[in-house]
Amino acid sequence: MAEPVVATYSIVACDLEEGQWGVAVQSKFLAVGSVVPWAEPQVGAIATQAYANPSYGPNGLALLREGLSANEVVERLTSEDAGRDQRQLGVVDASGESASWTGRRCNDWAGHRNGAGYAAQGNILVGEETVTALATTFEANAQLPLAQRLIDCLAAAQAAGGDRRGQQSASLLVVQKEGGYAGLSDTLVDLRVDDHERPIQELRRIAGLHSRLFGLSPREDWLPLEGNLRAEVDERLTRLGYDSLDTWAGVENLEERVDGEDAIDPVVLDALREASG
Q: Which of 7, 110, 253, 274 could form a disulfide with 124 if both were Cys (CB 3.0 to 4.6 A apart)?
């Protein structure tokens, strides 16, 4: 019998108030983000792992789209799969209901924990402390944005023991209707660390870059571009060889944080100051 392919720990979760669903995962496995996480806004999210059945992702989302609950999706997918005893699965549906499956032939330690808005699961772990850390960290941080909350869950799980074989890759996927780039995509965050000695730390680093480039400060925090600040911004742009803030921001991939010339996002201002010395 084949050995498990994707031995890992993951958390599938949602933030119903923000209309976001997501999956965070870490494993001693190359490019775990290419196999485990699946999500669709207003539909749900899925993690398929252990001796992973990749069809659980698209097939599970299709069932959720039809209106089946998380429990019903888990039952349907596993009942039709002869290899279910080697599978692990986590599902959160459109209403925040969650369900998981850990097959009896998943390698120890393997198990899961479910709560309102999340499903936490793992296999070939040091112990159940890893899954407990996923769950308790999620429950304790409802005030955080979902993406940050999920990365914190991974970090806590690793600190609690993590994958018994070590670390290699990690992934974060968060979806929101029209929440992605330019409002034309449903993919809010899709970040992967495919091969790294400290993949969760690297995932947190690139998530910070993502937030800097594609996030948006509250409009009330923007600074009026007038007087001395207007003169400073114009002088710095001239020094860099640009005739407008919009042109410079496009080159620096900060275009999502620029909206006209009347005010400036503080993050953009900091980046301009850093770039112009």
A: 7
Going by the DSSP 8-state scheme, the letter that residue 62 receives in this structure is H
Query: Do 109 and 124 meet the contact criterion of CB atoms below 8 Å apart?
Result: yes
SS3 category, 183? helix
- Looking at the chain, the number of H-run helices and the number of E-run strands are 8, 12
Q: What gap in Å lies between CA 163 and CA 123, rounded to an integer?
A: 7
pTM: 0.91
In this predicted structure, what is the pLDDT of residue 4? 41
Nearest residue to 42 (alpha-carbon basis) of 20, 59, 23:
20
In the chain, domain spans: 8-214, 219-276
> Which residue, among 98, 136, 137, 131, has the nearest Cα to 13 in the 3D structure?
98
Strands in 87-93's sheet, in edge-to-edge order, are 37-40, 44-50, 87-93, 98-102
- As a whole number of angstroms, the distance between CA 155 and CA 247 comes to 38
Query: Position of tokens 């923000």?
Result: 18
- Distance from the first to the final alpha carbon of the chain: 61
Report pLDDT for 166: 85
CATH 3.40.50.150 fits 8-214, yes or no: no
Structure confidence at residue 7 (pLDDT): 65
Which tokens go with 276?
Answer: 């112009």
The region, left, alpha or beta by phi > 0 then psi within -120 to 50, assigned to residue 19 is left
Alpha-carbon radius of gyration of the chain: 21
Centre a 10 Å sphere on the Cβ of residue 143 and count the other Cβ atoms it contains. Answer: 6
Token digits of residue 68: 């089946």
203 burial level (CB within 10 Å; 0-12, 13-18, 19+): buried
Asked whether the beta carbons of 23 and 37 are under 8 A apart, the reply is: yes
